[in-house]
Every structure is written in C-alpha cells, then in structure tokens.
Amino acid sequence: MQVIDDLKALWPLRDFRRLFAVRLTSQTADGMFQVGLATLFFFSPENASTAVGVATAFAVLLLPFTIVGPWAGVLLDRWRRRQVLLVGNLVRVGLTATIALLMVTGGVGPAVYVLALANLSINRFLLAALSASLPRVVDGPLLLTANSLTPTLGAAAAFVGGGLGFLLGLVLPEGHLRDGAALIVAAAVMGVAALLATRLGKDRLGPDERADAAQLRAALGTLARGLVEGARYLVERRTPAQALGIMATHRFLYGVTFIASILISRNLLSDPTDVDAGLTTFAGVLGASAVGFMLSVVVTPVLSPRVGPQRWIVLCLLLATVSQLLLVVSVSRTAVLVAAGALGLAAQGAKIAVDTIVQRDTADAYRGRAFALYDVLYNAAFVLAAALGALTLPDTGYSRVLFLVLALGYAAGAVVFGLASRSAVDRRTVDTPAPA
After folding, report:
1. Treating both helix axes as pointing N-terminal to C-terminal, what angle do 213-221 and 223-237 enclose, rounded to 10 degrees?
2. Burial of 199: CB neighbours in 10 Å, binned 0-12, 13-18, 19+
3. CB 52, CB 341: distance < 8 Å
4. What residues make up the domain containing 126?
5. Does residue 435 sit within a domain?
6. CA distances from 310 to 256, 344, 412 (A)
7. What is the 3-state secondary structure (H, E, C) of 123-143?
8. Are the beta carbons of 218 and 78 closer than 8 angstroms?
9. Cα–Cα dist 279/41, whole Å
10. 434 domain residue, yes or no
C-alpha cells in the first residue's frame, strides 16, 4: 500500500517520528474528550434535541477560540513550539482532571462548560503548533507525503480515541461516575503526549527568532498590526490566501451537513426519545466519515502529486458536491452513511492539500500566524454554519432544498477556486525569471 511506502520513506527521520508520536497520542486523548462532550451536549435527554440547541452548543464550543486564535499566531512565531506542545498538554491534564472531579461531585454546571471551552481552545492551539512544526522535521518532496499522513492519521487517532471513549461509556454504569472515568483516562493519555514531547530538543521545532519578555509584550500590544501584516503577506503570496479561503468555504458547507447529521441520527433515523439509539446511529455516521478519512491517506499521496494540490482540491470539492446530491435524492440510512464517507474523503483530502500549500508557500517567520489564521477561519466558518443550521434546518435535520443549495455551493467553490489557482500559477510563471 502507498501509505506503508510513505511511512517507510519518513520513518528514518527521527524527529519526524517523535513529532508524529506526539500528534497521535494528543489527538487520541482529544477524541476521548470530545466524545464525552458530544454525549453531554448532544445526546443527553435534557440537551440539544433541536436545530437551535445543536447550533447553540457548537457556537459556544467554537466561538471562544475564534476570538483568541489571533493571539496564538503571535505566540507560535515567538515561543519554542516544542515547549508549547509540552506545557499545553500538561495544562490540558489539569483541566480534564478538574472537569472529571466536578462531574463526579456536582454534575454538569457552569464551571464544566468554562473548563471544557478552555480545554478545546488549547487543543486547537496545539494542532496549530503541530502543523507549524512539521516543516522543521521534514522538507523537500517528503513534505507533501508527511502532510498526507500526519493530519489524516491524527484524525484517525482521534476517531480511535472517540471509539474507546464510546466503548468505555457502554461498559460502565450510567451516571456521573462513567463521565468522570472517561475523562480521567483522557487526562492520562494527554500526560503521555506531554512526556513524548520532551524527546524533542527545545529548539528543534523553531521558530528561528524568539523574543524576550519585553519584545513579547510589545508584540502582543501590536497584535492587530501583526495580523494585518501576516494577512497581507498571505494575500501577496496569493496561493496561501486562496487555499485558506477555499478551506473556510469547505468548512462552512461541511459544518451545515455535520449539524444536520446529528439531528438526522437522533430525530429521524432513530426514536427521538431513545438517546442511546441516536448516539449509536451517529457513531455509525462518524465511522463512515473515518473510513473516508482513511481512504484519503491512500488516495491523496497517489493523485495529488500527479495533478497538483490545487487541482486535487477541485476534485475533492466535486466529490463533496456528489455527496450532497445523494442526500437530495434519499435520506435513508445507507445514503447517509455513503454520503458521510464521501464527504469525509473530500474534506480530509482537501485539507491535506491546503496544509501543503500554506506550509510550502509561507516563510517560517509567518507560518505560526498563518496557521493561527487558518484555525480562526476554520472555527469561524463552523460557527457561521451553526447559525445557518439554526435558521434553516428542521428539528429532523433533513431539508432537500438545503442539501441542494449545499451541493451548488460546493460546485461553485470548485469553479471559482480552479480559475483563481490557475491565474496564480500563470502569474507565477510569468513573474519567475528563466534560469541562467
């Protein structure tokens, strides 16, 4: 298999192996933690059985990092990224253990929501640090290979962690003790991720230039100007800005479908009064998406180098179009699962290509800010999708007209991005002088 060959090519790189281990372990813990939150927010009898309820929960979870995300870029361009991975995971251990204690002693309350939001915000910060660090341990033609494997297998690790959390919930008796036990296991795995980060040298992941305390305060004080400079740089480079734009569009459309799938699983394909059945149905939908994610590991390294990352993104958008048209025709269990698998392949395949473009075409001095902006757009698009879902989705989650609109949105995105990326390539060809 291509993925085995790719791993063999990357495996001799010692620091890649170490960074890869941190990603897999950290995202496994994140999957366990997020399944616990999904059960709490979307599949408990008293929570989120309507479109407005699901949309509100997503907005509460994602909006905070959308706000604090710009600060992450400044820090990632000035702090040792290895230390970010170490300290960030240790902080998550403390937050998760505290949430578990609150769940066991007092149940769900405002403090649980606040700590959960902080935990998820740190996780997004860690993912940005992992992406910004990858070019420091892999370069040349292997960077595309690494981009194909690490985010996708990291997502697969999150699915594995989620599956473990789901199984743990089935084994333990229902109640606060079950929720607390799952979180304690997740905290332990986060601690392992922190220990694995110590195998990397403090300066190995960059950045090359770091600021002292006074310089850092000055940088944070001029945050808006720094972000404007970073955004202007990406726009001038053209290809990173185009990649971020189509990623945000893709994420927005994907978010509407994801919210609809929760409601369809709970209220249409299952008895709305049986939350366990709804959770099981949604777990099947997530499993189908995981299959699509894993297929992207096999397909992307084969096709993306041949057609180029921009054209691969266009193909992924067209596949997403087909997935939504399938839901226009039918909302049967089989159709929902097939559409979820196809959309999972399209979403992850496009993300791999976007990561490659941003990393390849962004200088290291701006890379932290680029991926912080990446995450801000990533989450803001989902918040907007939640708002659209609240306004347009029925409580069953299914609207034939809406899925047709989503299909047209994906098709339009493919056309616009294809034309824009071709223009950027043509301009680069004209502006680049011939070799002597």
Report:
1. 80
2. middle
3. no
4. 2-429
5. no
6. 24, 18, 15
7. HHHHHHHHHHHHHHHCCCCHH
8. no
9. 12
10. no
Q: Is 405 exposed, middle or buried (0-12, 13-18, 19+ CB in 10 A)?
A: middle
Helix/strand/coil for 109:
coil
User: What whole-number distance in Å separates Cα of residue 165 and Cα of residue 170?
Assistant: 9
CB 60 within 8 A of CB 117: yes
- Whose tokens are 């971020």? That residue is 244
Assigned domain for 310 exists: yes
Helix (H) / strand (E) containing 432: none
pTM exceeds 0.90, yes or no: no
Cβ atoms of 373 and 240 within 8 Å: the answer is: no
Report H helices in 43-80: 51-76
- From the CB of residue 228, how many other CB atoms can be counted at a distance below 10 Å? 11
In angstroms, rounded to a whole number, what is the distance separating the alpha carbons of residues 185 and 32? 8
Quick: pLDDT tens for 289-341.
989 988 987 888 888 888 889 999 999 999 999 999 999 999 999 999 999 99
Looking at residue 433, the DSSP 8-state letter turns out to be: P
Determine the Cα–Cα distance for residues 148 and 349; give it in Å rounded to an integer: 8
In the chain, how many domains are there?
Answer: 1
- Given this model, what pLDDT does residue 256 score? 92
CA distance 31 to 165: 8
**Tokens read off for 276:** 């366990």
Give tens-digit pLDDT for 343-401. Answer: 999 999 999 899 889 888 888 778 777 877 887 788 788 888 878 887 888 888 899 99
Task: Name 200's Cβ contacts closer than 8 Å, sequence gap at least 6.
Answer: 15, 18, 19, 22, 82, 85
Ranges 19-33, 118-132, 239-253, 323-337: which has the least confidence: 118-132
CA angle 56, 61, 66 (to 5 degrees): 110
Environment class of 145 (CB within 10 Å of its CB; exposed 0-12, middle 13-18, buried 19+) = buried
Domain annotation covers residue 249:
yes
DSSP-assigned letter for residue 208: S
Read off the CATH number of the domain in which 131 is found. Answer: 1.20.1250.20
In sequence order, which residues have a C-beta less than 8 Å from that of residue 167 and are 6 or more positions away? none
End-to-end CA distance of the chain: 41
- Please give the torsion angle defined by the CA atoms of residues 355, 425, 137 and 93, in that order, rounded to the nearest 10 degrees: -20
